[in-house]
Write a structure and sequence with these properties.
heterodimer; A: alpha+beta; 3-stranded antiparallel β-sheet; 4 helices; 9 strands; B: alpha+beta; 9 helices; about 30% strand; globular
């Protein structure tokens, strides 16, 4: 069974969200998602300072097997991107909740955090798939 | 639940992720497809290919029958054990399947017989087609479902297997020429493969294969799944039946014209008239290699645009682990030159058109 850390938030499109407590969030894809994707070979990240709305395409992750969109789980402005993924996309597989993070957003509407799934809710959603 | 090979339990216990493949439960990978790919390019990996169909063809007219059945000419097989790659065509010249044929006896011996290895997904239609074409020939077709098959591939593959088996087999493997095999106590060991590396494909009786697989694993040969098999064969520029060729296209349109024996001109094989006509007329589509040296991965069915010439389609594409960028096979119009565009996720991306293969013996080979 895949790893679903209890302290993170999730969306059903398999992104995780860590609320940093300073008005920003860090976003990546879940262990379940990386396992389904298989070996990741390219990651396309959003531009710095780009404004995204919840549900927007915010990047692409390409594995040997398939290409998948990455969605912005909440609305905000991109304030950091993980440039290390350019040379080491395999970190998405090896450390999806750590070194394999994708980007950080400055939240525009903190109330959107209430719509995110808890670890238990996300696990249940995965089992229904 | 699909068919299971005799290695099914071992795949499970070794951590294989099992998926359906042509009705068989087969390992996709054992953790990382990329690592398995690289092991085969640098060391030795093993694949369970027991799902493939083995058919022995014997009888007084075995050679005559095969000369009619397939596009290549089995009369080219001069030495016992030698292998021939060919396609079996329908009356329209379309490819029913691609296969390997081994000459199992001395050429011209009174009991001359051949062993065919065909794809698993096409098994039923192949066997039915072969049986129909056999009418009127003094020939016997015998499927060999009790033979398992293991491909051991990579620069260290032959040495690993030779050392493990020892004795007369060790010597025979060390001296074995490329594209040739030999029989030994119910086994058939051939220097063939589907990876672009040196290696062996070994047919083993069902009840002996688990022990062989385990011994190979202990000797350091890594189990590899269908995922790596696909990226390896694509780098090697080898077609996958059902993707790069189907019964709607001919060998000339599939980059395997070299496997069609047009000489002697009086050999009538199924589909010949269409191929002769196509060759004479020219202008048919061709299968080429595409290379994308920037980010992104070419995928099957993406549209290929050739300015001023027309359009084609990618038949298989992947990220090439050996090269670090994406490569693909694509069917394009005859007049396609060195450049094309591929529609990827709504954008037209420039790609280079090259002649496959992309990788042989661990090294980039295209210009």
């Amino acid at each position: 069974m895949s790893n679903v850390p209890g302290e993170l938030k999730y969306v059903s499109s398999h992104e995780w969200i860590r609320v940093e407590g300073d008005g920003t969030v860090t976003i990546g894809v879940t262990d379940h998602a990386q396992e389904a994707l298989g070996d990741v070979v390219f990651v396309e990240l959003p531009d710095m300072d780009a404004e995204v709305s919840a549900g927007d395409d915010a990047g692409v992750v390409e594995s040997v097997k398939a290409a998948s969109d990455i969605y912005a789980p909440v609305s905000g402005v991109v304030v950091a991107i993980n440039e290390d993924l350019e040379d080491a996309p395999e970190m998405v597989n090896s450390d999806p909740y750590g070194d394999g993070w994708f980007f950080k957003l400055q939240l525009t509407d903190e109330s959107e955090l209430d719509d995110l799934l808890s670890a238990d809710e996300y696990s249940a959603a995965c089992e229904e798939e | 639940m699909g068919h299971k090979t005799p290695l099914y339990e071992l795949h499970e216990s070794m951590g294989g992720k099992l998926v359906d493949f042509g009705g068989w439960d087969m390992p996709l990978h054992y953790g990382s497809q990329l690592e398995e790919h690289n092991i085969v390019r640098q060391g030795a990996g093993m694949f369970d290919v027991s799902h493939m169909t083995i058919v022995d063809v014997s009888g007084q007219e075995a050679r005559k029958y095969l000369q009619y059945l397939v596009a290549n000419d089995v009369a080219r097989l001069e030495i016992k054990g030698k292998a021939l790659y060919t396609a079996m065509l329908n009356e329209q010249g379309g490819i029913i399947d691609d296969l390997i044929i081994y000459l199992m006896t001395d050429k011209g011996s009174s009991n001359e017989w051949y062993r065919l290895v065909v794809n698993c997904a096409t098994r039923e239609k192949d066997l039915a087609w072969m049986a129909d074409r056999a009418i009127g020939f003094d020939v016997t077709l015998n499927e060999q479902p009790e033979l398992a098959m293991v491909a051991v591939q990579g620069p260290k593959a032959r040495a690993s297997v030779a050392a493990l088996l020892g004795g007369s087999r060790e010597q025979a493997i060390n001296e074995l020429p490329v594209f040739q095999g030999f029989e030994s106590e119910g086994w058939f060991i051939a220097r063939t493969g589907y990876t672009g590396e040196d290696g062996l494909e070994i047919m083993v009786p069902d009840d002996e294969v688990a022990q062989f697989w385990s011994a190979l694993a202990e000797a350091g040969v890594a189990p590899c799944g269908l995922g790596a098999r696909d990226t390896l064969r694509l780098e090697a520029g080898m077609n996958l039946y059902g993707s790069d060729m189907t019964d709607a296209v001919t060998p000339l349109e599939s980059g395997i014209a070299w496997s069609v024996a047009f000489e002697p001109a009086d050999r009538q094989f199924v589909g010949r008239e269409v191929l002769d006509q196509q060759k004479a007329n020219g202008g048919y589509n061709k299968l080429v290699g595409l290379v994308l040296e920037t980010r992104g991965v070419l995928r099957g069915h993406q549209r290929v645009i050739v300015d001023g010439v027309g359009e084609g389609e990618i038949t298989s594409g992947t990220f090439s682990p050996t090269l670090g960028f994406s490569v693909a096979l694509a069917r394009v119009p005859a007049g396609t030159g060195a450049a094309a565009k591929v529609e990827m996720r709504g954008k037209e991306i420039d790609v280079r058109v090259v002649r496959p293969p992309f990788v042989r013996n661990g090294k980039k080979v295209f210009e």
